[in-house]
Amino acid sequence: MLDRNTSFLKKISTYRLLDTPLSDLQIPYERIAKKHGFDFIQSESNAKEVLKSLPDDSAIRQDALLGAFDVLVFATGARTASFVESESDPAFTIESIITNPVALHARLADAEEPGIGFLGGGATSVQFAMQIKDSLANKGVASRIDLVTAGSSLLPEFPAQFGQYVHRVCRAQKITVHYMSRCTQMNATSMTFQRMDGSAKKIGYDLVFNFSGVKAAPLALQCNQYGQVLADGRTLENIYAIGDCSEFQGAGSNTKSAQSAVRKALCAVEHIQATYLQTSAARAYHYQDLGYFISLGQKDAIGWLLDKRVIATGRSALAIKEAIANQFALFLEGYNTYV
Length: 339
Ligand SMILES: Cc1cc2nc3c(=O)[nH]c(=O)nc-3n(C[C@H](O)[C@H](O)[C@H](O)COP(=O)(O)OP(=O)(O)OC[C@H]3O[C@@H](n4cnc5c(N)ncnc54)[C@H](O)[C@@H]3O)c2cc1C
Known about the structure:
Elements: E1 2-3, E2 7-9, E3 26-28, H1 29-36, E4 41-42, H2 47-52, H3 57-62, E5 72-74, E6 78-80, H4 94-99, H5 101-110, E7 115-119, H6 123-138, E8 144-148, H7 160-172, E9 176-178, E10 182-187, E11 190-194, E12 200-204, E13 207-210, E14 214-216, E15 221-223, E16 228-231, E17 234-241, E18 246-248, H8 258-276, E19 291-295, E20 301-305, E21 307-313, H9 314-332
Parallel strand pairs: 1-4, 5-17, 7-8, 7-13, 8-9, 15-18
Antiparallel strand pairs: 2-3, 6-14, 10-11, 11-12, 16-17, 19-20, 20-21
Bound molecules: flavin-adenine dinucleotide.
């Protein structure tokens, strides 16, 4: 297994970064590799160039890093979608926070009553905003937090009750939400956005996060229902893609979520085993999301389980969110409790 980083990052728990050392959210790949019996190589592959050459997989075989293989699996994930912003002083993204968490702490330490702006009204913005608000309040530090979204509600990809509930929580917590506001410029300390009526507003902050969404990196790979990559109408028999960088054919879930990533991986593994080890027949990917939980600070959460109409909030939702994170931690240790 090849990765540019030395450790696996528990992305689903990164919103806790202000209260938790980064090392607690990471597991060294060497440790995982040793436990499961594979080799780990820390290196950056020029995946974009490699993938551009598909369907001619001879180009991949010439790649110095990916050279010899029987089966190649791409799991390169997704990254913050590009956005026109200052190159010299860019807003924080999930990638930059992880690379340099100290910078985040330094910005907050310098401010008396930190003003913090979030671009995006999705799960990442909401979770980070609520967690930071609680974390600073616990230290006796007041904060001014804004969420800026082009949409008319928060969490638009979830059932409407999610946005309504979080809107009320934001009001109670004195977090300002700028709806229908399209960000036109941003850097690490300011955001300029245009409202529906055409008026523009620029607000200064101590810290700005760009959580405007992610896109498949380096590109979205179309796959059949077993995860084999499709290119120019051909199925590449020995090249698979899984997780956020893949789009499986059929009715299975292609959401960019950890649960889909795990199920796509299990589906591809089953197919590889069936093909190369002649184990039992592989099953096509048909996984449907079982639920999704969003943390709202240290005492609240919202989520749905099994049925999008069954919505839980408060401490019970928080407990389920914890259970989901623990189930994933168990999976990495080699205990597969997924249904
Ligand atoms: C802040 C945040 C919160 C989230 N919360 C949740 C949640 O609560 N529930 C949920 O289900 N999902 C959540 N998600 C989504 C979930 O984390 C992703 O869907 C999941 O991590 C996808 O797994 P993946 O393996 O496809 O990609 P990733 O986890 O992104 O892994 C991709 C890996 O590929 C490596 N890589 C990429 N390109 C190269 C290259 N060229 N050379 C070498 N290495 C490379 C990267 O270093 C990385 O380790 C969240 C995501 C974020 C960002």
